[in-house]
Backbone:
């Protein structure tokens, strides 16, 4: 009995259509998320009730994808069998080979590629239009889906593969890509984006990136009188100060003004060691996130950074750590007039504090200064020119002119940076003026 090509053709066409349909649904729901739903709700594309129902539906996206993928494969299988039988009917054994080649092309074009490209532009609309069908279909097909997923997990376990892991599988690059997309789509404003970006960067930064270096630390001797310490608090505007014995490498702890005032009012003679609070000790290559957790657990506000020999490398306050996430906070180690250490005088001319980090310079004024040895722009000038420059000295580097404005304790504490236009830019400017 021969094969009737008409029913086989109908089965093949219907199977190809279903393959495209299930593929379209799979991709459409795959790209749908609560951020897109929130945006569509704001744009009045869907109601709040629809957004709620869709959000609940896509919570189990793994089951949705599995269902549509299984029926996509089944449709492809029916198409392959029907199309092969048609080929055999007309051309014999050679027709089967031709049917396999042509059928594969048809599935790739109409069953996979076309639905994918439609989902890119119309995926949200498709997901909304077919929500009721998809919800009912996935429920009806759930026994088959669960059975196949059970078999898949069983086979996977034989090879030591963990199926349907709940672990989030997103890299840092993927996170930033998602953040950029959210910002571009208006789901994140600039401040929110910056905050999240800083939180991610905070995890990878080190204590040395945020500490106040030893040369900038203002501390008091344990033998100082109360009057001398109060005068220092008044002059510097501090609320707390490190206390050392003999030299700054032997920091004993932190003195808070509120611990000192009761004794000052009563004109008592006290031993500062009794009121000095013990600090937390850390090292410059400890992760800032780890130090933050350590200080938070111990109610600490101050940490002393030690070098490899046990000497003082610098200090870190809780404010320093928080500023890495939320930005500048006014405290005793911040300059009131220039919180970021960068002052713009005019186009391409900047006054920069020598302790401003190179990454901050790049972020604020787009000067790409890189070094593996130093972190600050003052250190960069010393490294590049291989000397400690003198006050007023002018140094040139590429298209930059550095003018040293202040030198403190053998380091560049303030400088003026002028960005010069290159010759091509000057010629273009002159031709434009003409």
Residues:
């Amino acid at each position: 009995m021969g094969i009737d090509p008409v029913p086989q053709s109908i089965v093949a066409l219907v199977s190809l259509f279903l393959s495209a349909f299930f593929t379209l649904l799979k991709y459409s729901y795959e790209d749908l998320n609560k951020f897109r739903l929130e945006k569509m709700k704001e744009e009045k594309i869907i109601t709040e009730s629809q957004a709620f129902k869709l959000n609940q539906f896509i919570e189990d996206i793994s089951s949705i994808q599995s269902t549509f993928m299984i029926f996509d494969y089944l449709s492809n299988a029916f198409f392959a069998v029907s199309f092969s039988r048609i080929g055999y009917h007309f051309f014999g054994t050679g027709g089967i080979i031709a049917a396999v080649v042509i059928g594969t092309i048809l599935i790739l074009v109409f069953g996979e590629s076309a639905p994918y490209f439609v989902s890119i532009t119309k995926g949200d609309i498709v997901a909304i239009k077919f929500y009721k069908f998809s919800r009912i279909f996935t429920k009806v097909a759930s026994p088959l889906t669960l059975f196949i997923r059970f078999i898949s997990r069983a086979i996977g376990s034989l090879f030591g593969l963990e199926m349907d892991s709940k672990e989030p599988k997103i890299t840092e690059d993927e996170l930033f890509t998602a953040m950029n997309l959210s910002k571009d789509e208006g789901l994140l404003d600039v401040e929110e984006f910056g905050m999240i970006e800083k939180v991610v960067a905070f995890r990878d930064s080190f204590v040395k990136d945020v500490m106040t270096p030893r040369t900038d630390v203002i501390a008091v001797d344990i033998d100082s009188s109360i009057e001398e310490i109060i005068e220092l608090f008044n002059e510097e505007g501090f609320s707390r100060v490190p206390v050392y014995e003999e030299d700054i490498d032997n920091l004993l702890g932190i003195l808070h003004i509120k611990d000192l005032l009761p004794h000052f009012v009563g004109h008592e003679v006290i031993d500062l060691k009794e009121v000095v609070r013990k600090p937390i000790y850390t090292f410059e290559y400890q992760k800032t996130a780890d130090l933050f957790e350590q200080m938070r657990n111990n109610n600490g506000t101050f940490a002393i950074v030690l070098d490899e020999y046990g000497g003082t490398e610098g200090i870190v306050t809780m404010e320093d750590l928080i500023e890495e996430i939320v930005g500048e906070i006014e405290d005793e180690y911040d300059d009131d007039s220039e919180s970021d250490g960068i002052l713009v005088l005019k186009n391409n001319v900047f006054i920069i504090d020598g302790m401003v980090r190179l990454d901050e310079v790049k972020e604020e004024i787009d000067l790409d200064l890189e070094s593996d040895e130093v972190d600050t722009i003052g250190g960069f000038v010393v490294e590049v020119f291989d000397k400690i420059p003198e006050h007023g000295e002018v140094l040139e580097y590429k298209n930059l002119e550095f003018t040293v404005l202040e030198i403190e304790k053998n380091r560049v504490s303030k400088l003026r940076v002028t960005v010069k236009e290159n010759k091509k830019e000057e010629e273009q400017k002159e031709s434009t003026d003409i």
